Amino acid sequence: VVKKAVRRPLSLSEKILYSHLDDPSVAGDIVRGKSHLKLRPDRVAMQDATAQMAVLQFMSSGLPTTAVPTTIHCDHLIQAYKGAKADLEAAWKENAEVYDFLATAASKYGMGFWKPGSGIIHQIILENYAFPGGLMIGTDSHTPNAGGLGMCAIGVGGADAVDAMVNLPWELKAPKVIGVELTGKLNEWCSAKDVILKVADLLTVSGGTGAIVEYFGEGLQSISCTGMGTICNMGAEIGATTSLFQYTPTMRQYLKATRREDLAIEADKFASELLVRDADFKPDMYDQLVKIDLSTLKPALNGPFTPDLRNECGDAMKAALQKNTTWPRQVSASLIGSCTNSSYEDLSRVASLAEQAHKAGLKAKIPFYVTPGSEQVRATIERDGIQQALERIGAVVLHNACGPCIGQWKRTDIPPGQPNTIVTSFNRNFSKRNDGNPKTHAFVTSPEIATVIAFSGDLAFDPQKDSIPTPKGPFKFQPPKGDFLPSKGFDAGKDTYQPPAKHGSSVDVKIDPKSNRLQKLEPFKSWNGKDIENAIVLVKCRGKTTTDHISMAGPWLKYRGHLENISNNCLIGATNDGNGKENSVLNVLTNKEGEIPATARQYRDQNIPWIVIGDVNYGEGSSREHAALEPRFLGGAAVIVKSFARIHETNLKKQGVLALTFADPSDYAKVQTADRVSLIGLKSFAPGKPLTLVVHKGSENIKIPLNHSYNSEQIQWFVQGSALNVMKSKR
């Protein structure tokens, strides 16, 4: 139907997306980057931190079961501290109330439930649910990991997931398509991680916004299916809607190895026609084309504080250290794993390096932490001796969970505020991201480079040239070797899956009214039909403002199901342009400095609307909708920025917060924290029609034009108070 409607060559991502249109016959009218698509995803996946709010929203719909296959994965609430066994036991004890809520809700409403200890959501998806040509949405920004199996997998906020769960079409602005042509072959010290580190360097943290990144070319032959997952996973760091690979032989091998041979057989039938871009779709038909010769890539480390600052190992890093004298060269910890790099292949390759070091009499020089991606991977590396090889050289194997990658790391070796450097195979390295310390300089790299640095302790160590002194003489690593798949097959390990109840109506989902972890949602108020007059600028955010700055993770994860309590972290990591401080703003009512959440509550309680001013790519990072729910709950009326990250912009819209951009980005300079402002033009709010911000500076009124990307349906989200209110009004 799509081919008949479009009548032009299609990219792979277009084939998959348009085939999932609610009405595929309209595909011929689609304009990439402009049209709004109404899509029918094949499934929904949620991790435990974001699932709490999404499930609460779904429960308010009154439906007995979800309309599409849906799963919940417990991976975010396990804190890394003492090691796998102790940390899992502590998580069960501390989070029992939340786990019980999610387990019973899943059982009642027809959702699969993966218990704590199962593994990281994206690895579980790859092992069990991802398939070539499918469309999935997940309440985590790294959902695109499933692109390693040729699936169009997109990170969304909880309200978007609820759309699919209640059988409403899910809306997405038609993405542009960026083609990345890979030629050549990776050298022995490079891995798939080095590909995405280079792409991030070329496209930056916002270069993929509003686009799907589609990889093609002869270079695919040297990258495994799980390596492709790594590339797609970290595509979130360039703002991409998702990333995608065409069907390859390694995908077939992986499907068979994970007990899904039937899917491999079906995929083979359509491999040459549907699971690749059309033969007559030429590279110049992409909206943007990037070319990378894999043969020229060198191992690199990206950072600190941003995932797009690339530094090649060795001489280039030494030059960067000489230029940036505040970067500590001595590394304080090395961490590998996370959803980005925790496959069997990753861990078998680092184990080969650990074996070399062990034979040379070496142990890890610095703390070295390893996170397996799933119970299946953990059980298999234990059976095959990989875990033992890592523990022999001093590595601490953590539980199958997100852990330090999302700030769930109870770090005790470095005092807060002490400058230090860590290297990780994670995907994100914003300030405070891993350990809550703003002075921790985090560099993301491949598991292989993170491993050799664990022995050298030197950020500028280049395993291709440098050696490590030992009593027997200098030791030099040989290139890593490993297996894509285990020769004995995967060991499934412990059964950690709970299927939904056959008769969910009999299951009782309880929320204690006195709980400080869970709270039923109350509907937000609808618009009063008036322009927003004499509002206060709560804070003007300076520079990078990610969802980590707006709604921190780490110790705050425990409150993700309790909107009132989680709102106490609203914008506490943002830098106030007015004074250069975090979590400190002028309270216009008291004329004193105050914390941002408390100031916002006071404005709300006095019925005074407030707004936020933001910089470029505001809201980049995680998919967490709490970064939109919290401002809404505290009385926020609008967020006005130079530009938005895709997911956060949608999340704000869904919760009834006006998401607006400066028509002229330089107008950002004309407004400041604590200014009085008005938003004019709301009575005639319409698609494509600008609004006006009026800044009241004494007797002067400065008018600033504002743009927006709302369509007619999204405007109703604002009018009725939220997308959830609109959904309820139709039932």
UniProtKB/TrEMBL annotation:
EC number: 4.2.1.3
Cofactor: binding details: Binds 1 [4Fe-4S] cluster per subunit.
GO biological process: tricarboxylic acid cycle
Top-level lineage group: Eukaryota
Pathway: Carbohydrate metabolism; tricarboxylic acid cycle; isocitrate from oxaloacetate: step 2/2
Cofactor requirements of the protein: [4Fe-4S] cluster
This protein's GO CC annotations: cytosol; mitochondrion
Keywords, sorted A to Z: Iron, Iron-sulfur, Lyase, Metal-binding, Mitochondrion, Transit peptide, Tricarboxylic acid cycle
Residues in Aconitase/3-isopropylmalate dehydratase large subunit alpha/beta/alpha domain copies: 14-457
Catalyzed reactions per annotation: citrate = D-threo-isocitrate
GO MF: 4 iron, 4 sulfur cluster binding; aconitate hydratase activity; metal ion binding
Alphabetized NCBIfam families for the sequence: aconitase_mito (TIGR01340), PRK07229.1 (NF005558)
Protein name: Aconitate hydratase, mitochondrial
Organism this protein belongs to: Reticulomyxa filosa
